[in-house]
Input
Amino acid sequence: MISLADQDVRPGAEVMRRLDRLARFSQEEGTLTRLFLTPEHKAAALQVKLWMEAAGMAVHVDAAGTVVGRYDGTGECRQALLIGSHIDTVRNAGKYDGSLGVVAAIQAVAELHRRARRLPFPIEVLAFGDEEGVRFPVTLLGSRTIAGTVDPAMLDARDDDGVTVREALLAFGCIPEGIPAAARRPGEVLGYVELHIEQGPVLEREDLPVGIVTAINGASRFLVEVTGEAGHAGTVPMALRRDALAAAAEMVLAVERRAASVPELVGTIGKLEVPAGATNVVPGAVRFTIDMRSPDDGQRTTAIADIMAEMEAIASRRAVRATARRTYEETARKCAPWLMDRLAAAVAANGIEPLRLPSGAGHDASALAGLTDIAMLFVRCAGGISHNPAEAIAEADADTAVRVLLTFLETLETRKTID
Ligand code: GLV
Ligand code: MN
Ligand code: MN
Output
């Protein structure tokens, strides 16, 4: 039995120290922005690689920029348990979204290594680089690579500077042609487990440090382009305008109205640009994004069809043209009951009530569900705040999370035994 009873071992303190360190790898000083395949992503990946090596893992960076650390087992079971999360961030991010799962997993393996303990199965810790989808209009390239579900067209997506994913991968030192070969086969893996901050208020309200995720919302994202006619702000009469921004404003409100019409459905326009905007110009073109999510795939797809029809009607009434291109699609994913039960047992063994809750946010686990059974452990975060520099967790909760993960690892029977 792995025991963390000795009081000198405080994995939470080390986790918090490392998260502070990782937060320094940022595009700008003072705030945290670390986008996929940027120099700061590379620096963070190298730091993660060093921590993995110090924890006794054999490490490589795969064709999609994922840092992969392998801690061999006793050889009894060849299927590896994958544990992962992401090290990319949104702009002006918090320090814990994604990074906590990577750092906590390394800490758990470091603890096994410290005790010279091998489990019956190998463990692979995965630090993905593309969960947020901020730099390119595609996302989950790392986890989809592992799952073998990368659409080659993803590599042609361009960032705001016109750089393609393929070019950025090459500049990062990756060989994009190696992506298909980096995929795992279902028979090679036991399952995928992700530890992540909750990014919502439930655990705090329930006064619990951790909880077991039951399912992850499905999500669809679109890039909408509205084209009207640019004109002089002083001379074009109101009745003769084809104002792309005024049309987009109606579309934004249509999304909000439709999303609010059903409980659990959410819709967000997080980015809106007027490319050639000026104070004295009637906007001729606008680009905006739509992000729609729900635990119910049918509910989401019906709402999207309604929204597309309403945008079409708005465009026609205002004599503008609107096109919507789907940039992301992920169905709702359920966590595997056998893994949830074992996580719940590990939570209970640490003296905590094993609460189960759904995830509104997306995770790399969604992509891994295409390959293997998935499970997630949520960690309480202050005020449920995330995607915000005010994101915060308690050191004691980080400590609990690592202990629960270790108990889970220690008590996990291989699927062979379970079947
Ligand atoms: C990832 O953070 C997402 O849910 O958008
Ligand atoms: Mn995340
Ligand atoms: Mn996030």
